[in-house]
Amino acid sequence: MKRTLGLIATAAAFAVATTAAQAAEFRLGLLTPPPHIWTKAAEAFGAELAEKSGGAHSVAVFPARQLGNEAEMLQQLQTGALDMAFMTVAEVSNRATDLGAFYAPYLADDIAHAGRILRSDVAKALLEPLPGQVGVVGLGYGMAGLRQIVSRGEVNSAADLTGLKLRITPFTPILDFYNALGAAPTPMPLPAVYDALANGQVDAIDMDAELIWVLKYYEHADTIVQSDHMMFPMVGLVSARVWAGLSEEDRAMIGELIAKYVDGTIDSYVAKEAGWLEQIKGTGKAYKKVDASFFGSAIDDWNAIWSKKAPSLDALRAVAAETK
Ligand code: BEZ
Q1: 320 assigned to some structural domain
Q2: Do residues 71 and 44 share a domain?
Q3: Ligand 1 test: best mutation among 146, 232, 234, 235, most atoms within 8 Å of CB?
């Protein structure tokens, strides 16, 4: 009996040791194309994880919707078919409504302010319910640029957007915003946008400065409206199922590195946003810089809807006021 117990104890100790040292190749999915800042951050994360784990772990990065759109990737994370993703908070907010608070129009005064809001404790606390609510572990925020409007036609006032088929990222806060404005918001994942704008399937798009410039969306537009109307956070996610199977040591290492690389994207956008906007201005397209007054009552309408839907909106507004 003593010998049997001894063997079980030895086997258990061996199993623990094996789990701790278990090598893994993780799969990380993204929507963004290979040259995008998020994709580069994912690759850099993979390289440092391989180095820090002494080659035990590696990360295969799948950009440009290779594993499906974000809704599909989120499902794969839930089942454990996908290990990790750098994903728009927009997509996650379709399942965790409180995250919709980030999209309050003009919550952030500028891109650096958006970064400070995302680095706050209130923002971090919004990630805590994700394992129970969505089946994913949120390890930190990154971001893309503030949102702008690119239109095939002339835009002199918000009335010119009325009835326009205007591409949006598929998530509810932005849908509510453009509905309040009287546009015809058309949800469409990022990789489909270029062709849709080029062939006139949509009249306008909601987009950030990086992609307007780098993916040349401006080529198929007459007017760029620099409105800076919303921030656009990203989150580094690990499947909760995959996370549960990791050793404490691996969780610490992976959690720290994902947080480091997604956070680094905030610095990139703060450094580069103004340059992209200058380059877009230099294209000679009509360029109109507007503020909240451009959108009239649409912002109040949005606030009325989302003050009920997102309990954390007030706390996030308080952070925005403190971090101005
Ligand atoms: C978009 O849907 O517009 C988007 C998605 C990911 C990164 C940047 C923009």
Answers
A1: no
A2: yes
A3: 232
